[in-house]
Amino acid sequence: MATIIVVTSGKGGVGKTTTSASFATGLAQRGHRTAVIDFDVGLRNLDLIMGCERRVVYDFVNVINGEATLNQALIRDKRVENLHILPASQTRDKEALTQEGVERVLNELRESFEYIVCDSPAGIEKGALMALYFADEALVVTNPEVSSVRDSDRILGILASRSRRSEHGDPPVKEHLVLARYAPDRADRGDMLSVEDVLEILGIPLLGVIPESQAVLQSSNSGVPVILESGSEAGAAYSDLVDRFLGKSLPHRFITPQKKGFLKRLFGGG
Amino acid sequence: MGLFESLFGGSSNKSAALAKERLQIIVAHERGSRRSSPDYLPALKKELLEVVRKYVTVDPNQIKVHLDREGAYEVLELNITLPEDEPQSVRKVGGVSRVRLD
């Protein structure tokens, strides 16, 4: 039985696509057949983050409209086995994603994949609602910043009232908090919301804390999901996150400030 | 951040505490308004409209259902504006029902 996981946030630019790419890659690395779908119709970007933008021939909307088969549209990842990407369409037609169409594609994916990761667009419009509607679990990506936390709370309300599970009276969508772009030293100084603050406000279990890291930009520059940069803090944090999702109990790393030496303080870096 | 501040920790205005306080207030408020506009409200509105329409022809946009909170009471307010060319009918029906909260 396949599990559908939506990666959502409400607010844009908080790290949904980065998280979707690394999360899906991590699941596949651990031997699980995984598909990751870009729901951001009109603003396709998951392909760039995963480095397969030049291999896109058909997209999600082509499959919905019967212009291509699912197998024609799915892109097999070249680095990691068991990983497939379904790119978003670049159409400007807002109505391209129909609930029936999305359901049909998801049902077909369920037959050959264990995990289906849905990368949601920002906002609470149709694309975002479609991405979360069929979800069994949700990764709510939040930055330690007021507008992001507020929008995450709003998305939690939508998950609880407008998902298929809520409409059918099934057990609710399982929620996980992913706190991204965290700067432990700033939280320690009191000028950034801390992990505890965000947990207290949102009240959902913490799956992972991803530290603010230059590796995220560097890996997106080269089209490699940051989880594959195992030497980086962000990559290691995503690895832990995937292990925790699969049931391992691991302590949270990168949430306390590193002791900086005198020279490092003087000349920056780190 | 200047050299002095980066060396000795510097002054911090602890704005995170303010952020947390503001968020707690706004999030509680927004969760409250989510609750006070329950899922059955659209269905209730539709059914009420059907009942009224048995007797008077009214525009679907002329019915307003509003749920509010007054202390320990929840107030369900219903406003239906009746069409002007119904001479014998009351122009406006206002109904307020009070439900005590547990």
Summarize the structure in words:
The complex is a heterodimer of chains A (270) and B (102). Chain A has 270 residues and is α/β, with parallel strands linked by helices. In chain A, 41% of the residues lie in helices and 16% in strands. The longest helix of chain A is centred in the middle third of the chain and has 17 residues, at 146-162. Chain A starts with a strand and ends with a helix. The model of chain A has no long low-confidence stretch (mean pLDDT 95). The mean pLDDT of chain B is 71. Chain B is built from three helices and three strands, in the order H-H-H-E-E-E. Chain B starts with a helix and ends with a strand. The interface between A and B is medium-sized, with 22 and 21 residues.
SSE order and pairing:
The complex is a heterodimer of chains A (270) and B (102).
Chain A: E1 3-8, H1 16-29, E2 34-38, H2 46-49, H3 60-64, H4 70-73, E3 75-76, E4 83-86, H5 99-112, E5 115-119, H6 126-133, E6 137-142, H7 146-162, H8 164-167, E7 174-182, H9 184-189, H10 195-202, E8 206-211, H11 214-222, H12 233-245, H13 262-267
Parallel strand pairs in A: 1-5, 1-6, 2-4, 2-5, 6-7, 7-8
Antiparallel strand pairs in A: 3-4
Chain B: H1 3-8, H2 15-35, H3 40-55, E1 63-70, E2 73-81, E3 92-100
Antiparallel strand pairs in B: 1-2, 2-3
